[in-house]
Amino acid sequence: MSMTLTAWPKDQRPRERLIQHGPAALSDAELLAIFLRVGIPGKNVMDLSHGLLQRFGTLDELFDAAHKNSDLGDGLGPAKCSQLRAALELSRRVIHEQLKKRSVMNSSRAVGDYLKLMFKGKERESFVALFLNVRGHLIGTEELFRGTLNHSAVYPREVVKAALRHNAASVIVAHNHPSGDPEPSKADLELTKALDEALGMINVDLLDHFVVAETLVYSFADHGRL
């Protein structure tokens, strides 16, 4: 029988460690334990957290599984899975608000993090556009196209129309690769060129094109392709 957390020395309990040292000092299992709050019969919450991380491998895989399923067992029933999904959405909204308050022109990492959360759990290809004002602040995000598992028909004129609708000064586009490989295809390269030319005709800059494959992100701008 696992020792209950109340029997642990106070300075070893996850919540007390967070208060004393801050969240960055805690392990993934400790942070997960604080979120789960209680264990299950035969397992205290730390044992449960370690078991879940062993089962899924990483926090990202755990959250991804919760995003796709409403009941994962081992203490993660519908209520806990809903909490995990809500936590993901809160994270996405926090980053979205941050991008609205500061220029994203030189923040490819922040944009990449936002897009990873946006595409998480999507099993079909999706194409989105982020619209920025003259200061580089995010003013709108739209999913413009949704395709099959490996293809999404993207029409540059629709991206141009959306940019005009948002009165955007610049645009960042992105799509996901459900296959898990972020390397852009020949079609991705051709599309980027067509979008750059089409947006240039209305004096709107295409700042970047991201390809998101689960936890991996490819930036055209970072690779000198824009």
Automatic annotation (TrEMBL):
PROSITE patterns per the UniProt record, alphabetical: MPN, UPF0758
CDD domains assigned: MPN_DUF2466
GO molecular function terms noted in the UniProt entry: metal ion binding; metallopeptidase activity
SUPFAM superfamilies, per database record: JAB1/MPN domain, RuvA domain 2-like
Source superkingdom: Bacteria
BP-aspect Gene Ontology terms: proteolysis
Alphabetically ordered keywords of this record: Hydrolase, Metal-binding, Metalloprotease, Protease, Zinc
Pfam families: RadC, UPF0758_N
Start and end residues of each MPN domain: 104-226
Family named by the database record: Belongs to the UPF0758 family.
Name this protein carries in UniProt: MPN domain-containing protein
Organism the protein comes from: Herbaspirillum frisingense GSF30
Organism lineage: Bacteria, Pseudomonadati, Pseudomonadota, Betaproteobacteria, Burkholderiales
